[in-house]
Amino acid sequence: MKTREIFLLLLIILVGLAISVYYSGRIHFLELNWPEFLVEGESFSFEETKRIEPPLPELLAVNNPRGEVIVNPGESENIEIYWEKQVWARNEDEARRKAEKISLQTEKTASELVVKPFQPEGEKIRYRSNLRIIAPASLALNIENSHGLVSLAGFKKARVHNAHGQVKVSHLAGELLINNRHGDISLDDIGGPVEIFNRHGEIVILKALEKVKIEASYGHLDIDEAAGGLEIKAEHLSVSGRRIKGPADISTSYEPVDLKEIGAARISNRYGLVRIDGARGELTIENRYSPIEITNLEGNLSLSGKNTRIRGQSIRGQVINIDTSYDNVELEDFEGETSIFIRHGNVSAQPASLKFKFNFEGSYSSLRFLWPAAEKASTEISVRSGKILWQLDEPVNQFESNGETILRAFWNDKTAPLVRIKTSYGQVAIAKADRQAQKKPYLSLAWWMR
Questions:
Q1: Nearest to 49 by CA among 79, 77, 74, 29
Q2: 37 phi and psi, to 5 degrees?
Q3: DSSP characters for 350-384?
């Protein structure tokens, strides 16, 4: 390879790396400490104030090209604006001349009041615009900004569009829409619907009284109380949440989902743990290549997985459906009509009672079933290329049919069996659910599968 070709290849790699790092949010070219000849010296700050008196329209719109926007409610009907212009120049006199060319414009119509910095065409001035605004709480806000903080508190409703900066919103009476990237979002006490679009940033929501809808990637979501439900469409977003009263619909990948005290939920994940502790309502969960853990559920349960380990404890529902492969399943203290379909994995099941049907179908799979004390249920076990261990005192009828070993217990020819177990290339053990087994169901299963 020629020297020129090697140089071109290295240049392409460096450009690609720079673009990748920029879009990842780890570096902002315009915010670096560039050499003096590139940024034209050091920064100087100049301040102005402006008052806007009534009558005021319902909407306050702020279009800030770069800097900070902080808006707080005031007691008067006026709007007070405190503006800081941060200008880069070789000296203070040059900075002042540049700053005088930048003005803060306000345009009032019947529907909105627009506040925006203005720079004459053809003038190349590097500056930041930091706005501190005090306005009546009855106003709605529409904020556009970049490379800086946007902070709002105590208004009617708001729309925020920001880039490379943090967004903070609290005590909002109505709806909130946020479009952000490369920055964190923090919300507290939002009274209306919430819709968030974010890339490369953390999202924290402390209280939302209506539905929360989020589209995000590459970050973390922590939500505490969503009274109106939760909808998430994400990639590479970890999710933790508590007190989600309404229905939740969550789709993410490569990161865990960890929820507590929730209502009905539908969750889809890939390569990330799904853990639920305390749910009241129907759960439908799909996962691949990572575990599912369910504890303290009152509602129906449907689990679907591939290469997915499943653990469930303290489950009460009408229907429990599990379909997985290439990993183990452990169910303990569960009650409801249960169906388990598994391939290339082993199962330990300890129902709270036998009031409901239990159906197990496996391939290259074994089952250890811990029988509740003093319970009786019509049972049929069918195993091909495996064996059956019956460890109860009840006598059984065991025979061979078409290459299968079939065992029947508590049998009643007039009714279908409550417990139906069928597997191939595996083993089935039926044992009493004693205290030792309750403490170590996985150890017992591991011993059985040696």
A1: 79
A2: -70, -15
A3: EES-SSS-EEEEEES--EEEEEPTT----EEEEEE
Longest dimension (CA), the chain: 102
Residue with the two structure tokens 């003096």: 36
Instruction: Using only the alpha carbons of the chain, give its radius of gyration.
Output: 31
CB-based contact 306:286 (threshold 8 Å): no
- How far, in Å, CA of 383 to CA of 417, rounded? 16
Q: pLDDT tier at 179 (50, 70, 90 boundaries)?
A: very high
Tokens representing residue 219 in the block: 């970050």
3-state secondary structure (DSSP) of residue 182: coil
Identity of the residue numbered 201: G
C-alpha to C-alpha distance for 130 and 85, rounded to whole angstroms: 7
257 touches 279 (CB < 8 A): no
Residues 332-364: tens digit of each pLDDT: 999 999 999 999 999 999 999 999 999 999 999
Cβ(448)–Cβ(426) below 8 Å = no
* Cβ partners under 8 Å of residue 412, min gap 6: 378
Q: Taking a C-beta distance cutoff of 8 angstroms, is the pair 81, 143 a contact? A: no
**What is the CA 373 to chain-centroid distance, rounded?**
41
In angstroms, the CA 431 to CA 348 distance is: 11
Closest C-alpha among 123, 44, 129 to residue 82: 129
Measured from the Cβ of residue 4, the count of other Cβ atoms closer than 10 Å reads: 8
β partners of residue 115: 62, 106
Collapsing DSSP states into helix, strand and coil, what is residue 56?
Answer: coil
**Upstream peptide bond of 55 is cis (omega within 30 degrees of 0):** yes
Say yes or no to pLDDT of 283 above 60. Answer: yes
Answer yes or no: are the C-beta atoms of 228 and 247 closer than 8 Å.
no
User: What is this structure's pTM?
Assistant: 0.84
Q: Rounded to an integer, what distance in angstroms lies between the CA atom of residue 299 and that of residue 445? A: 27
Q: Running DSSP on this structure, what letter comes out for residue 208?
A: B
| Contact (Cβ atoms closer than 8 angstroms) between residue 162 and residue 145 | yes
Closest CA relative to residue 334, chosen from 283, 291, 259: 283
Number of H helices, E strands in the chain: 5, 35
As a whole number of angstroms, the distance between CA 104 and CA 79 comes to 14
Distance between CA atoms of residues 182 and 120, nearest Å: 29
